[in-house]
Design brief:
single chain, 7 helices, mainly alpha, 50% helix
Length: 141
Amino acid sequence: MSRGEGDTRVVRGPPALTKIIREHTKAEGLKPGDQMFQGEKGGILSGSVTRRARRNARKTELTERQCASPIGKRIYDIRHTLLTKWPNGGIPPPQVAYAYGAGNTSPVLLASDAGCVEGQLPDLKRRMDAQGDFPELPDED
């Protein structure tokens, strides 16, 4: 589903990142429309610079397995990473879709991102087992 021209949506960012961006913006005296990071001559950073920075950051911050995965390979992938991180952290998909401004509906999240949820199966199995078996049905006479 695409938005109409000029339509926007609010997408929440992690509070720590929001604080860093606000501090940087204030320290640099940036105004709306200013570039946060500039190239050597004040222009837009080249694609090769941003790709190299992203590649180095991924190698530094991610495990080897994560680095081999699509996590954050492209800047847009950060959104998808969050849409899998939040459910992995136990936030139900409807809340991710609605409260966190994912821009997707719950069915879309469940169809596209829920397959990436890792590490919850043992806990979910324990919780299902704790519910016990179905109650015995009374004998029919």
